[in-house]
Design goal:
The structure is a homotetramer.
Chain A: E1 5-10, H1 15-26, E2 30-36, H2 43-47, E3 52-55, H3 59-71, E4 75-78, H4 85-96, E5 102-105, H5 111-123, E6 129-136, H6 146-162, E7 181-183, E8 186-192, E9 198-206, E10 209-217, H7 224-234, E11 239-242
Parallel strand pairs in A: 1-2, 1-3, 3-4, 4-5, 5-11, 6-8
Antiparallel strand pairs in A: 6-9, 7-8, 9-10
Chain lengths: 251, 251, 251, 251
C-alpha cells in the first residue's frame, strides 16, 4: 500500500467522471494529478506525470484520449462505450508498439454484478433449472437489460459446455407471455419498478434445493470500487483487457 | 379452547385428505369421529354426531357430500374444486332452509397466500409501481398461476378504486417478451424452477423505497392451518362463505 | 384533485426540508407559498395564506412553529422529533381551542415501512413463528433500529391479544449470541452493511409455508410521498394524530 | 454417459440411505447392485461386483464398511459423520496400499450450500461489509449452524489473506444482542422459523451496491445430486478427498 498512483480523470465534469474524481481523491493510495475536459488538455497527462488515465467520456472522445495515453506510456482504465471491433483492432496494434502499457476497457465496473454473472455461470452446470430476473427503474427503454442478457448467454454457454439438459418446463398454456424471454434456452424476466436502480437475480433450482444470486446497484457510486481496482491492477496487466473479470481473482 | 369439535373427513385416502386426517388428530381441540371414502359412508356423519365435515374429495363427489351435511345440520369446510355457479346457486338455496349451517368453500387454504394477496392489494394504492412474480415447480402446465392472476386482478381493482395511475414503463424494445404478461395493467412473471413448490412475490416500488411481500408454500401441509381455522370458524359464519379471507381478521 | 393546497415548509434548508420543498413544487395539487428558516419568519405563514405547514426542523424549534400554526388556524404535518408527553399534552390543550385544525406528528413518513409493520402485526396472529431482521448502513450507532423494535412490539402485542403461543425454539447452545435480541418474545436481528440505507424484513413461518414482508428505504426521498399524503389528509383529520398509519386506509 | 456404475448402498433402511437407493435407481447411468444393512452383508459388495459404495450409516459402522470397500478395490462415497483424525489417519494409510481407490468423505452433499460458501469467500475480498444469516427449523438445538460457522470462517480467512479491513460497524448501544455472533470478525445471525428446513444467506455490501448469495435446502432430497456426483467422480479422484468441493469445477 506504499505505492501512490498518479491518476488523471478524463470526463471529470460528467456524472460518472465527477464520481471518479471524488473516489480518487478519497483513495489513500492515489493522487489526482489532472482532470481533463477536452482534447486540448490531454498534454496535462504528460506534464503531470500521470501513470493511469481514467476515461469516462463519450464515444466521440474516448479513442483519441486512450491512444494519446498509450503513446505516452500511460495506462488507461476505460468505462466509455463505443469501442467497436475496428477501434479495438487499431488499439491492439498500437499496444504491440507499447508492450509495457495496459488498457482495461470494461462495460461494467460494478464488481458485484460481474461476480453474480461469473458465479451463476459456474453454478448453472450443477442445477437442473435456471432463470434470470432483472429489475430496473421504469425509465429504462430496453428490456431485458444488457447485463441480464449477457448473464443468460454465459449461463447457456456453461450449460452447453457441461452437457446439461435444458431447464424442465411443462408449460402448455401461457397466452399472456408470463414465462418471459428465451435467451439460448435461459428464461429472462424484466421488472420495471420505481425506486430501483439496477438489480439482477439468478435463480438456480434442483431437487429439494435452491441457490439464489442477487446483485443490487443502488447508485452509480457502485462503479467506483471497480474503477479503483482497475487503476491498481492495470499496470500489472499489459496489453488490452476486455472486462473487469479479467482482473478479479476468481480461482 | 374448551370446545372439542367433532370432525369428519371425506376424501381421507387422498393426498390432501390424509394430511387433514393427521392435522385433525394432532389438533388438541378436535376429535376425528369419521373418515368417509364413498357416498355409502355418508351416514357415518350422522351416526357419529359429526359437527363439521371437511370435504377434500373430487368434483364428482363434493356436491353430494356437502348437501348431505347441510341437510343434516352439519357445517362443511370444502377444498374440492368444481363448484360452478349452478352448484353454488343450488347450495345457497338449500342453505336458506338451514339458516344455522355454515359452509366454507375455499380455493386456497394457505393462509399466507391469502394474506399476501390482501396486503398487496391494500399497499398497491400507495405505490407508483407494482409487479407480480410467481414461481412454481416445472411440472406446472399453466402460466401464470391462478393465485398470481387473482392477486394481480385484486391489485388492479384496488388501484382503479383509488384512482392510481398505471405503473410507469418506458420500455420501447422488448422483442423476446421479457416484460411478462399484463393482467389489467399489472405485469405478471412466471418462473419454473425444480425444487420449488409454489411461491408468489409482489414488488411495490415508489420514489426511494420498495415493499416486497412474498409467500412460499413448501408442502401441502401448508394448507392444514387454514383447514383447521375453517373448522373452528365455520359454525360462527352461517350461510355460504367463498374464500378463507372471509374468516380472517384483517382490520 | 382540483383543490390546490397552499403549503409552507419550515426547515427548508435542512436535508429533509429541502427534499420537501422539491416534493411540494413537483406536486400538481400543491403550491409552495413560503419557506421558513427561523421563528422571525413565522409571520409569512399568515401573510401568504398558507393552509398547511410542513415542519421538518429541530427539536428546539418545532413546538413554537406548530403552536403558531395552530393558533392561526393552519394545519401542521410534523416530522421533527422531540415531542415528549409534556409538549404533546400542551398541544392537545391548544387544539381543543381550535377544533377545526389538524396536526399530524409522525416518527416515520415512509409509507412502506408503516405498511410492513401493520401487515406483520396482522399476519403474526396466524403464524407459529415470527422474527424480525433489520438492515442498515454501518454508521448507525444504535441496534436494533427504533422501527424494528416498534415492529417487534406491535407483533408481540398482536400475538398476545390473539392468544398465540411463543415462537418455538429448541436452541440449547448459542455461546456467541447468534439468536439476536428478544423484544417481548420476538427475536430481532440487526445487520450493518455498507451500501444499504434502511431495510426491515419480517419472517413469518408455519407448517409448510413462509410469509416474508420486506421494506427497503434507499433514500430520504422515500419519505416524501408520506409527507404529501399528510398534507392532503391533515385537514380532514382535526385534532392530533400520532403516526401516519392513522391516515392510511388499511381496512 | 455410456458408463454404467455398479453401486451399493449401506444404510439403505435409514432416512438418507433410502433416499439414496431411490436416487441410484432413478439415475440412468447407475445400477443398484446391493443394499447393505449390517456388517454381515458386506460380502455382497464383492459378490455383486460393486464399483462404488455409498455409505450413509452411523458413526459406529462407517469405518468398518469403508475399510472393507477399500480393501476390495471398491470406491466409497461417505456421508456418515464420526470420522475423527485418528480414523482418517488410518484410512489414509490403508489407501496408500490401494492407490487406485478413491474415497470421498463429505460433511455436506448439498451442492448449492457448498457453492454458496465458495462464492461468498471469493466475493468477500471485494466488499467492505459481509454478514451471514442462517435460517433453520425450530427443532434445531445448536446456533449458529455448523454450515454458517464454516462459511463465516472461510470468509474471514479469505479477507485476511486479501488484507481486507474488518466490516465497518459504528454500533455503540446494543443491549439486547441484536448484532449477533462474531466468528473471527464476521457477524452471524441465526433465525428459527417453522416451515423452513435449512437456509443460509450471505450479504455483501459496498458503496452503492449489494451482493446476496442464498441457499435453501427444502428437503433431504437436496443431498442426492451431490451423492450421485460423488459416485460419478470418485474413481477419477484416487486417495482421500474431504469435502465435495474437491470434485466441483469452480475455476
Amino acid at each position: 500500500m506504499t505505492k501512490m498512483w498518479k491518476v488523471a480523470v478524463a470526463g471529470s465534469n460528467g456524472r460518472m467522471g465527477s464520481e471518479a474524481v471524488k473516489a480518487v481523491e478519497n483513495a489513500t493510495d492515489m493522487e489526482l494529478v489532472a482532470t481533463i475536459s477536452s482534447a486540448a488538455e490531454l498534454k496535462k497527462l504528460v506534464e503531470t506525470g500521470a501513470e493511469v488515465l481514467i476515461d469516462l467520456t463519450v464515444p466521440a472522445a474516448t479513442e483519441q484520449n486512450v491512444r494519446f495515453a498509450v503513446e505516452n506510456g500511460i495506462h488507461a482504465v476505460v468505462g466509455t462505450t463505443g469501442w467497436d471491433e475496428h477501434k479495438l483492432h487499431n488499439l491492439r496494434t498500437l499496444l504491440t508498439q507499447h508492450p509495457e502499457v495496459g488498457v482495461l476497457i470494461a462495460p461494467n465496473f460494478a464488481i458485484g454484478a460481474i461476480l453474480a454473472t461469473e458465479f451463476a455461470a459456474k453454478a448453472a452446470q450443477y442445477f437442473e433449472s435456471v432463470e434470470v430476473i432483472e429489475m430496473h427503474h421504469p425509465q429504462k427503454v430496453d428490456a431485458p437489460s444488457g447485463t441480464a442478457a449477457h448473464t443468460a448467454q454465459k449461463i447457456a454457454d456453461a450449460r452447453a459446455a457441461a452437457g446439461v439438459a435444458p431447464s424442465p418446463d411443462a408449460t402448455e398454456t401461457d397466452e399472456g407471455g408470463s414465462r418471459g424471454a428465451d435467451i439460448d434456452g435461459v428464461k429472462v424476466h424484466a421488472v420495471r419498478l420505481r425506486g430501483l436502480t439496477a438489480s439482477q437475480e439468478i435463480l438456480l433450482g434442483d431437487e429439494g434445493q435452491q441457490l439464489v444470486i442477487r446483485h443490487d446497484s443502488f447508485d452509480r457510486k457502485s462503479f467506483m470500487p471497480g474503477v479503483l481496482l482497475g487503476v491498481r491492477e492495470v499496470a500489472a496487466h499489459p496489453g488490452l483487457t476486455h472486462g473487469l473479470d479479467g482482473y478479479l481473482n476468481l480461482r
